[in-house]
């Protein structure tokens, strides 16, 4: 099980390809994913966390990388080293969402306490113990956690540049699926086994903020 901190379930890591990422924020229903669809959640990107080369648009549901820095105000939550940003809401329980993209992207989750300033290994999605990440590029798909890389498979076709992410917070799993027109393909599942300490936190009326997961994108 994940610790009961807000899992920032979306760190977006933007590559230097100026395409866009799109969050599917409406209720998602696929006959082949009916169980997950019942747990569909709406997500929006948090402009206060976005690196200054990241541009948000369409009510903070799409994002792209820009060669020019944006006039964002200084904010303690803003990433200043990695081209990434978080979603506004931390997630617990069971949640399902989808991301569509062009180019390269990292999709994953992190605790809110992840570093925001400098130090690539401390702030980049999947390069520390506080975050989990699937990296999609033109060569391979990689799973990252605690700076350990696992090679998964060949790149997906352009027709399947949509990924569904399913969090089961109490079971400690974060699963990724390639979403196709009439099916889905399991890509990878991160698993953090339940611990007594975590169960104690879950039973309490309020969850410590540092254990809630947040969605993250890395461009």
What is the CATH architecture descriptor? Answer: Sandwich
Sum up the overall morphology in one term.
Answer: globular
Please give the domain count: 1
CATH class: Mainly Beta
Runs in which pLDDT lies below 50 for 5 or more consecutive residues are: 4-32, 194-211
Strand content: 35-45%
Provide keyphrases for this structure.
3 helices; five-stranded mixed sheet; single chain; Jelly Rolls; B30.2/SPRY domain-containing protein; globular; B30.2/SPRY_sf; seven-stranded antiparallel sheet; ConA-like_dom_sf; 37% strand; zinc-finger; transmembrane; mainly beta; 219 residues
Descriptive overview:
This protein is mostly beta strands and 219 residues long. The chain has one domain: SPRY domain (Jelly Rolls), CATH 2.60.120. 7% of the residues lie in helices and 37% in strands. It has a seven-stranded antiparallel sheet with strand order 4-5-3-7-12-13-14, with no helix packed on it. Strands 1, 2, 6, 8 and 15 form a five-stranded mixed sheet that branches. A hairpin with a 2-residue loop joins strand 10 and strand 11. The longest helix is centred in the last third of the chain and has 8 residues. 41% of the residues are buried. About 21% of the residues have low confidence.
Question: How is the secondary structure organized here?
Answer:
Elements: E1 6-8, E2 12-14, E3 20-24, H1 34-37, E4 54-57, E5 62-65, E6 84-86, E7 94-101, E8 105-111, H2 120-123, E9 131-136, E10 141-145, E11 148-151, E12 162-168, E13 173-179, E14 184-191, H3 196-203, E15 212-218
Parallel strand pairs: 1-15
Antiparallel strand pairs: 1-8, 2-6, 2-8, 3-5, 3-7, 4-5, 6-15, 7-12, 8-15, 9-10, 10-11, 12-13, 13-14
